[in-house]
Write a structure and sequence with these properties.
Layout: H1 8-18, H2 24-45, E1 73-75, H3 87-91, H4 95-104, H5 109-127, E2 130-133, H6 135-150, E3 162-166, H7 193-200, E4 204-209, E5 219-220, E6 223-224, E7 226-227, E8 230-234, H8 240-247, E9 253-258, H9 264-270, E10 273-276, E11 296-301, H10 304-314, E12 330-332, E13 341-344, H11 355-365, E14 370-373, H12 385-395, H13 397-402, H14 416-423, H15 428-451, E15 454-457, H16 464-471, E16 475-486, E17 509-520, H17 525-539
Parallel strand pairs: 1-12, 3-4, 3-9, 13-14, 13-15
Antiparallel strand pairs: 2-4, 5-6, 7-8, 9-11, 10-11, 10-16, 15-17, 16-17
Length: 549
Amino acid sequence: MEDRTITEADIEAAERLMGVMFTARERSQMIGNLDGQIASAIDRRRVDLPNSVPMALRFDPRLPGFAMPTASGVTGSVPQTPLPEADEDIAFATLPELGAWIASGALSSRRLTEIYLARIAALNPQLFCFATVMADSALAEADAMDALTAQGISRGPLHGIPYGVKDLFDTRDVVTGWGAEPYQDRVPQSDARIVTLLRAAGAVLLGKTTVGALAYNDIWYGGRTRNPWNTEEGSSGSSAGSASATAAGLCGFSIGTETLGSITSPSQRCGTTGLRPTFGRVSRAGGMALCWSLDKVGPICRGVEDTALVLDAINGADIADRSSIQAPFAYRAGKEITGLKLGYLPEAFGEGATAVDHAALAAARDLGIEVVEVSLPDLPYGALMNTLYAEAAAAFEHLTLSDLDDTLTWQDDGAWPNTFRKARLLSAVDHVQLDRLRYLVMQALDGLFQQVDALIGPFMTGPMLVASNFTGHPCLHLRAGFEDLGTRGAASLGAGKLTTGEADASGETHRVPQGISIWGRLFEEGTILNIGEALERRLGVAAERPSLS
């Protein structure tokens, strides 16, 4: 039988892993009471903690003195566009256009659903963006919406419009496999809150869009989801299928989630418009938990106004989500933005910034608003990544302890299996201190947004990807232009950050979209949406489509 006695040499070896140093006397003193600590940890591991069990502690993005905005109500545009003859033109239409055609009777929800189902059948074998297609139920839902339309009843701007939902969200009696081999046969018995809200809003569920295994990257048990602009590369992740399907015109809109870049990163790669709402605004009930204090739910669309219409349908507190926060949402299409102050970090537009980045900043200056330089305190923002690693490792501890992590396809150094193991070697004391650092970062961003109404910058602007995800501030990412790039590799969290992959400069280049991010104050998504609308019009690149056959 293996000798499990703890020795001073064991403690000394552990010190190197933990980045601390004790004296020989201190090591000797520890030996006497480590056994109890280890035994307690082993006892706790015997308790079954399924993914649905939340943390007792809850993250709240609001600092003392925060005042919740009081404005509410959403007013969309009223387009007069005639119904196109070509199915493809209909498929790529905006949500206000689709809604107007359905409301007028020019377009039925069934026909629109059939258009999208036909596109899925033709293009999903290239893109691997739908894990499950729910054709029969989608057509039944579409017929039900058409019946209501015939009676003069509308459930709102999304009435009769088909969408895809990220395969992290439960759908009753339909496989929800989380993109991961251990769960690919998982069939839930109820719908996630996001699904019930969208059903109530009249949206038609086409199926489950692919997710990088356990909400990371674009590799799942069915393959690798592809970027419609360059099918030789992945679509980035983890809302891989949602961005790919929306960019390729396989749905009217889609739902994604973000813990650290999972809405904004695939939107950067696929040229979609992704809105990551304020933490707590949208219920996560019935969705896979990756990090309880970080996960957020938001829309992925082809235009800025579209994201506002979807957010309005899914906004609202939910007792089933312990981190849910009741907050109003206000948005008016085309609202004047004169008088707003937009900040930018000058280093974000220095070395490494692209021509598209500089053009987007120049376009912002042309909007008639004040654009000013800002700065953030010098803090180790990247250190917060260890909190993400720990929460994710806890959410899927059983995979590590049972060796089921070996069944996941992606096994690189930066992939989940290795990251989960590594996370167990940082002390609980360090994690408490990380939470205190997180509070300083909350204060830092609060100070920034006291100076400006919003911040603009490239996807990887300084510390903003990490910082704003940990503080819960909202972010809108929209297409800003195009670049000729080589095929890009997989994302990686291994170095303490997420990247969208390095392009292969030696290979064939492809014309691919590039985006720009706009960050805003807590629960003030309407402001960044109106800035985004104006910028979208100014840049004039949102309507271009990928060439697929």
